[in-house]
Structure formats: structure tokens, C-alpha cells
């Protein structure tokens, strides 16, 4: 069994293209020593390469490629496995699209095929190659600046002090330098309860968090708080109790966003949909949290029409380097745009993650990148402007 990795990248601005022949010659020798085959395309700005061979050799070569300063914005498009090689035995071949006729390069690549069965563009790897040659991927390809372009400077403006029983985390618009919401997270360990007792306890904790947040949040600030979805179904009068807690805290329903986790199995979808209708009739907004981590997300979008979704950290982690994650998130953003649903990206730890998602159209973010100390908000500052 062989491993295949396909990636694209951007040549560094200070690297002359005249180095390409020597670079390819050295890379070919290195590939051969690892029994790895490489088909490399270059269009004057971007590289595209198919690597295939024994898994250990391909991973070693690819890790070296990712560390090479002669290019940046390395995005892994595909990682797959196959019973045999598509191309040659080992080494690397360059197709320079600046001089090679684009109409014939596709056939030239096919002619290099050595697999037992004739290569066609039904092959998924070659579909990626064709898309690159025909420059059809540009609308989905966002360049991000180097991480060291930004400093993230903590500022107490808009932050909330710690409160006993609740942890506050901001939702921010980094470029607008605005805290758009505050999430109130109960500072208690989850109770080891089962069945209805679990949901009764969850509602009690949420109501106490609302009380504390009402005393701490600035007037009119949107308050985000997560609840177990079946709490709204299983606890008699849950929505009435929530509305009472909101009123007692000096808040109004219109400033509350209730987040329900997609990873929670919603076994009573009709009852949950009815509860959501009651929430919205009262003025409370709904968010689907951890979107992309579970299996219910698309069904919930269709059935309950949330006001927001929050994409979880698992799907945004290193998204600037993962073509599959980028494709999934772009599809989610397009879907939510069509439905006028706001998207929040949570769990942001790296500047590159934020920059890619910002370029894709996300405005609201959460994560340690923007609130590293919990109580202060860190705004991005251009280092050249400091």
C-alpha cells in the first residue's frame, strides 16, 4: 500500500524562479532515496505537487517541504492510499506552466502514468491536478500573511472581571476591535447525573449563571450561554423558568443567545423544534455550537433555523493548512450566508487560523488568541505600524 499527499503552496517573494531547475534536481535525488515519486507543477506563483510512495518516506518528504522557507501557505489538499503508483518509480518531474502548453500538460501527465490500469481524470488525485492547471481553484484559495505580521496586544477595554461561579469569555470582531458578545460559562464541574436529573441540574446551573452575568455584563451586551438541548424538552416549564431568571437578572430576552451543542444527540427533534419556536417567540436567539463536530448539524439547520452557528475548535484547528477543512467550512459559510445565519469561529489559537477564516468571510471569533488571559481582550496590531 502506498500513501499519496497532494499540496499547493505559494513561492516566497524573495525567491527567484531561476532556482527551480536546481531545486528540482536535488528534490528528485531526495525523493529517490525515499522511494517517493513527485509530479510538481508551477504556474509562476504557486506550486502544486503530488507525492506518492511508502508512508514513512512520503511523510518525511512532506514534513521537509512544510519547513522549507522558499514557499509559504502550504495547504494539504488530499491524503489518500492506493495499491500502486500512478507515476514512475521514484524521483520528481517538473511541469512549468509558464512555458508548457496548458492544453497539453494534462495529457503529458497522463502519459507518465505507470499504474496497471490506464490513468484517467476520474482519478481523484488527477482531478486536483486538472483544477490547478485550469486555474479553477482560485476563488477558494485565500492567501494568509505570516503569523509574525501581527502582535496581539491585551487591552482591558470591553473585558469583564472574573466573577465567582462564572467564567466570562468574549466573542470579538478583531478588525472592528469590538466585543460583540460575552459568553458566560458556569464555573462548576458537570454533575454525574443521569436522565431527567441531569437536565434539572443543568437548568439550575444556567439560571445561576444568568443571575451572576446580569450583575456583571454591561447594559445591552449580548450574553451567550450554552445549555443541554434536551433540558428545554425534559424539564417541565424550562422556558418559563429561563424567562423568569432572565428578568430577575435585569436582562431582556433579546440580548440572550442560547447555544446547544451539535454533539448532543437530539432524540426528540419534534419536541425540541417546538421548544425552539417558544424561545424565539419570547425573543431569545438560538445558536448551534460545535458545528461540524457531530452528525446533527445539517438536520438542525433545516429544522430549527438557528440565528447563529459556532464552528468548534476541532474543525478550525490548522484550517490554513488543510484543504478538506477549508472546503467544509466554506460550504458551511455559503449555506449560512444563504440562510442569513451568523457564523462564529471558536477555539482560535493561531493567527493563521484567524486570517484564513476572516478571508473566508467570518467576522466573529473566540479563542485564546484573542483572550489569552481570560479577562483581557487581545486586539491584533500590525507590527509595522507599532
From TrEMBL:
Coiled coil: none annotated. The keyword Ion transport does not apply. It comes from the Bacteria. Residues 2-93 form the BLUF domain. Keywords: Plasmid. InterPro entries: Acylphosphatase-like_dom_sf, BLUF_domain, Cyclic-di-GMP_PDE-like, EAL_dom, EAL_sf. CDD domains: EAL (cd01948). It holds the Pfam family BLUF. This is Diguanylate phosphodiesterase. Residues 125-386 form the EAL domain. GO terms for molecular function: blue light photoreceptor activity; cyclic-guanylate-specific phosphodiesterase activity; FAD binding.
